[in-house]
Write a structure and sequence with these properties.
5 helices, 0% strand, single chain, 123 residues
Length: 123
C-alpha cells in the first residue's frame, strides 16, 4: 500500500475535514519515528533502506503485513483532533499493537547496534 492509498482508505472509513497534505505530514512523521526508533538502532539499516528504495517512492518502511499501522495511526490522529476519546483509545490501541508487533519482528530479525561482550571470558 502507498501513502495515497492509505489516506484514501482512511477517508472512506472515517470521513473527515483534514486536508490530504496534513494526513501525509502525519504519515511522514510516523515514518521518521519508525526510522529513528526501530531501523537505525539496528545493524544492517543501510541494506534495509536500500532494499526499501527499490519498492518505489511511496512504499512504507514497515512491510506489507504491518502496513495497517499507518491506517490506525491516521485514524487515531483524526479521533484525537476531533476530541473523540473513546474512538481515539480504540484506534490508538490498534496502532500500538501493530507498531509493537513490527518492532518485535524487526528486533528478532536484526541485531541491535552496539558492542558485543562475550562474558564467558571473564572468569
Amino acid at each position: 500500500m502507498t501513502i495515497s492509498a492509505t489516506i484514501a482508505l482512511c477517508d472512506r472509513i472515517r470521513p473527515n475535514a483534514f486536508p490530504y497534505a496534513e494526513k501525509e505530514k502525519w504519515i511522514r512523521a510516523l515514518e521518521d519515528r519508525i526510522l529513528e526508533e526501530i531501523i537505525l538502532t539496528h545493524e544492517g539499516a543501510k541494506d534495509f533502506l536500500r532494499a526499501r528504495a527499490t519498492k518505489g517512492e511511496g512504499a512504507f518502511l514497515a512491510p506489507d503485513r504491518y502496513e495497517s499501522l499507518y491506517l490506525y495511526y491516521l485514524l487515531a490522529r483524526i479521533d484525537q483532533m476531533n476530541g473523540e476519546t473513546a474512538r481515539y483509545n480504540e484506534s490508538a490501541a490498534l496502532f500500538n499493537a501493530q507498531y509493537d508487533a513490527f518492532s518485535a519482528a524487526y528486533n528478532r530479525a536484526h541485531l541491535p547496534k552496539g558492542v558485543f561482550v562475550d562474558r564467558r571470558e571473564w572468569s
